């Protein structure tokens, strides 16, 4: 079972939260990182981090005697998810809104 709490700031913007289950606990990024000289260090995980961690674990299985077509398919989909999220980030960078709550 997974338990999540997703928090919003006073303007209704995402403001971190937690997700946990058996064997894991995630503290989500709280607030935007900012831009340029005002950019701050992350204070929590991003969705991309967690997808990458899941892909890393599946790749560990793929590199062992537990390799399977199912793991390979899952890895392809996780890679596709990361590519989509990276494309979103690139689009936001191109529009100078990455690191902000602007849409």
Report on this structure.
41% of the residues lie in helices and 18% in strands. By secondary structure, the protein is of the alpha+beta class. Strands 1-2-3 form a three-stranded antiparallel beta sheet, with no helix packed on it. α1 runs antiparallel to α2. It starts with a strand and ends in a 9-residue tail after the last helix. The mean pLDDT is 96. Keywords: Nucleotide-binding. It comes from Mycolicibacterium mucogenicum DSM 44124. Residues 25-90 form the Acb2/Tad1 hairpin domain.
Structural category is alpha+beta
| Radius of gyration (Å) | 16 Å
Strand count, sense and barrel status of the largest sheet are: 3 strands, antiparallel
Mean of the pLDDT scores? 96
Instruction: Report strand order across the widest sheet.
Output: 1-2-3
| Unreliable stretches covering 5 or more consecutive residues | none
H/E element order: EEEHH
Label the overall shape. Answer: globular
Beta-strand content? 15-25%
Separation of termini?
Answer: 32 Å
Task: Please give the number of β-strands.
Answer: 3
Q: Number of helix segments? A: 2
The helix content is 40-55%
């Amino acid at each position: 079972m997974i338990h999540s709490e997703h928090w919003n700031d006073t303007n209704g913007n995402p403001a971190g939260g937690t997700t946990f289950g058996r064997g894991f606990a995630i503290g989500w990024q709280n607030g935007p990182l900012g831009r340029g000289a005002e950019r701050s260090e992350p204070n929590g995980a991003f969705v991309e981090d967690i997808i990458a961690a899941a892909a890393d674990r599946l790749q560990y299985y793929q590199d062992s005697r537990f390799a399977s077509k199912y793991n390979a398919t899952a890895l392809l989909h996780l890679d596709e998810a990361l590519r989509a999220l990276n494309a979103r980030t690139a689009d936001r960078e191109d529009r100078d809104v990455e690191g902000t709550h602007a849409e």
